[in-house]
Amino acid sequence: MSGQTLYDKLWNQHLVKQRDDGTALIYIDRQLLHEVTSPQAFEGLRLANRKPWRLDANLATPDHNVPTTVKERAEGNSGIKDPVSLIQVQTLDDNCLEYGIEEFKINDPRQGIVHVVGPEQGATLPGMTVVCGDSHTATHGAFGALAHGIGTSEVEHVMATQCLLAQKMKNMQVRVEGELGLGVTAKDVVLAIIGQIGTAGGTGYAIEFAGSAIESLSMEGRMTVCNMAIEAGARVGLIAVDDTTINYLAERPFAPTAEQWEGAVADWRTLVSDADAQFDKVVTLEAEKIEPQVSWGTSPEMVTGISGQVPDPQAALDDTVQRSYMRALEYMGLQANQKITDIKLDKVFIGSCTNSRIEDLREAAKVAKGNKVADSIKLAMVVPGSGLVKRQAEAEGLDKIFIEAGFEWREPGCSMCLAMNADKLGAGEHCASTSNRNFEGRQGYGGRTHLVSPAMAAAAAIAGNFVDVRTLPANDASNAQEA
Amino acid sequence: MKKFERLEGIVAPLDRANVDTDLIIPKQFLKSIKRTGFGVNLFDELRYLDEGQPGQDCSQRPLNPDFVLNQPRYQGAEVLLARRNFGCGSSREHAPWALEDFGFKAVIAPSFADIFYNNAFKNGILLITLEENVVDRLFAEVESREGYQLDIDLENQRVITPGGEILEFEVDEFRKHCLLNGLDDIGITLQDEDAIRTFEEKHRQQRPWLFRQPA
Ligand code: SF4
């Protein structure tokens, strides 16, 4: 028998029961809750007169709807102007209070985007199954945890039974080998992967990211990569446990304390794919070839390197691709063969569960330091992923760097990633965004999103158009040659 | 989910093919945080003369007297008689929530849209597919006789008309089992409660740190 993949191990460790019809009951260790997808689940419980199975497995925080300006936030829930948003946040508070679920409320310093908060608290641990009513739950796989996004009926199911009905996926490995160039980040890696395998490339698979370039990433970088597994079509993204994982977790509030630590670490060390494990599909990328990436279209796979240009739909090989390219160019207001560096921007958004962690903010600040946002940029905002990220950034003086450069420094939340609060793009506006989705209208009706790394977003804010961060003084000039 | 007991219920005829989920529950009502309370907005556009908004007091709104559910003879209806491709359109589970909240327990039609079919059974609504000509005949009978009721016997998979005619129908074994026993997905999983507890205990012993809470 050949060895097991990391995914196989996690699956087997949580298998309660295999049914004849191919579905299985999987035990869930952690459920993260937010205000948008939980209210109907709580109501379902109430209607059926059921109790949550295990209260302490749940952790809640509002993130999608919370306002991010300092003034509104100071008013707590009453600072939420949209009545529907307010009801959702208020309902989460009420439900958590009624059932006794731990919640980091709107102005708790630990509040933030669920996918930033879980890991930061150590509430996401290696070897766990983690679910949340949000597709970017894949983020938590960076810790060698099996993490799924689920629907509202499933949120209720997990709350009531501590289990999820699931079907085993196939195994895929994406290897990124070699060393990343200076100025090339985790975001560029994952965008390049999606550009290569497409947004359906991972459908039906759990993707394990591996190879020396992945191993050299920090936990923040690994989370960025796993976060976008869903944009590659996979519900699950995974990275094996190593010293980086273990060091990150030490002394986090929910992490094991001294008496359990050694046992936990010994167990976590086994959370790697066996050397002889078989994958159903393997894809390999060379790290040296990855440039800073910019998406030009309306799907995350419509992406290219900074030295590239907008493709010419006429050159596309098949009709469907040609039509989708033409439609994307029209929506984005771009010309075939236009250089990426010629795209003019209106707004810049640094934030979201993909890129709002301390390391992301440090990278952006490094570029922003001593510079000014271009006059042509109407709004450049930095939205930390959680209250704790915000504090840390302020302790390091990053807020001052951003503010002096002309960025707005906001309160934590999802913000302009999906425009459920007041932070939105206007029709036709181009935005350099560190988020994960560039679908039509995602950041506001008619808005045009370009997905990039935090450093690329900051550089774009200063220049008013996209620039190659590898040519900036902050990075080694010798690296610019490849561009 | 409630058990589906043998049902003798008043039948309301909705003589219209391809009733989509937006007609069943218009999209302005989806912004709710609840899964109950959709009944008053069921078929909102057909039922009222004004344009419905969320949060209105529907008892104050002008009713469309021509709409079948507003007619006195169909008050308290529990069976909806419908036409081809009922429930087409989006996957919104709000459509069965609205039907259920209004009080419908069964829908009879020549065919149903796929996702709606699943969603309805998940929410305890029995969907009965009968031949088009049989449905035609039922429409005629319902309209000709006030207080028309059908006797729906899920156990034996038959519908009995007031005239004693027996109409047999097909339903998948698993769905039938769930309806008869009032089992939703959660109910079914909870039948394995012991297996879950046993697993949980073992899991806790092997990896206690997965269960710890911060001080
Ligand atoms: S930041 Fe964006 S992608 Fe992430 S959870 Fe919030 S809305 Fe979803």
Automatic annotation (TrEMBL), chain A:
Binds 1 [4Fe-4S] cluster per subunit. It comes from the Bacteria. SUPFAM superfamilies: Aconitase iron-sulfur domain. It catalyses: (2R,3S)-3-isopropylmalate = (2S)-2-isopropylmalate. Its cofactor is [4Fe-4S] cluster. It is an enzyme of class 4 (lyase). One of its GO terms (biological process) is L-leucine biosynthetic process. Pathway: Amino-acid biosynthesis; L-leucine biosynthesis; L-leucine from 3-methyl-2-oxobutanoate: step 2/4. Pfam families: Aconitase. CDD domains: IPMI (cd01583). Its EC number is 4.2.1.33. GO terms for molecular function: 3-isopropylmalate dehydratase activity; 4 iron, 4 sulfur cluster binding; metal ion binding. [4Fe-4S] cluster binds at residues 353, 414, 417. Residues 8-464 form the Aconitase/3-isopropylmalate dehydratase large subunit alpha/beta/alpha domain. Signal peptide: none annotated. Keywords: 4Fe-4S, Amino-acid biosynthesis, Branched-chain amino acid biosynthesis, Iron, Iron-sulfur, Leucine biosynthesis, Lyase, Metal-binding. InterPro entries: 3-IsopropMal_deHydase_lsu, Acnase/IPM_dHydase_lsu_aba_1/3, Acoase/IPM_deHydtase_lsu_aba, Aconitase_4Fe-4S_BS, Aconitase_4Fe-4S_dom, IPM_dehydratase_rel_enz, IPMI_cat. PANTHER family: 3-ISOPROPYLMALATE DEHYDRATASE, HOMOACONITASE, MITOCHONDRIAL-RELATED. NCBIfam families: leuC, PRK05478.1, PRK12466.1. Catalyzes the isomerization between 2-isopropylmalate and 3-isopropylmalate, via the formation of 2-isopropylmaleate. Heterodimer of LeuC and LeuD. Belongs to the aconitase/IPM isomerase family. LeuC type 1 subfamily. This is 3-isopropylmalate dehydratase large subunit. The gene is leuC.
From TrEMBL, chain B:
The lineage of its organism: Bacteria, Pseudomonadati, Pseudomonadota, Gammaproteobacteria, Oceanospirillales. GO terms for biological process: L-leucine biosynthetic process. Keywords: Amino-acid biosynthesis, Branched-chain amino acid biosynthesis, Leucine biosynthesis, Lyase. Residues 1-132 form the Aconitase A/isopropylmalate dehydratase small subunit swivel domain. Belongs to the LeuD family. LeuD type 1 subfamily. Pathway: Amino-acid biosynthesis; L-leucine biosynthesis; L-leucine from 3-methyl-2-oxobutanoate: step 2/4. This is 3-isopropylmalate dehydratase small subunit. Heterodimer of LeuC and LeuD. GO terms for molecular function: 3-isopropylmalate dehydratase activity. Its EC number is 4.2.1.33.
